[in-house]
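Chapter review: from sequence to fold.
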Amino acid sequence: MAFNVKILTPDGIKWNGMADYLSFRTIEGGMGILPKRSPLLVKLSVDLVELKASDGAKLSFAIHGGYLLNTREGTTIVADAVEKPEDIDIHRAEERISRAREILKVEKDARERARINAKLQRHMLRIRVFKERVHGSNTK
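The token string follows.
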């Protein structure tokens, strides 16, 4: 039995369909959802969200924070930004990782270092999601 999953951003619906399983990382650790599970509201970390669609496809998304709500009607993820592997420019992400690491070598201000580290984490996530596609997990 499958359950409905919607992944939403301010730009619109990134994915809407039936899934057999959904895994994600919250600010407290990794979790997963199966059909007919208890209600849940959690804050998501900047991390990979993976799902197994009811047609057998395994999909990965880069989720840049947000919230997940699980109810009897299904699961909804609301995030500021969500990226599918096919939307990711791997070369741009690699360049930005190199640039961020260079800046971190010389940056002294704690706030600026935290901001650069957050950017670095997002770019590393993009590469991870892109590689998931390359290794075949975004297929049936």
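Two observations follow directly from the output. Strands lie at 3-9, 12-26, 29-33, 40-53, 58-71, 74-78, 82-83. Helices lie at 90-106, 110-134.
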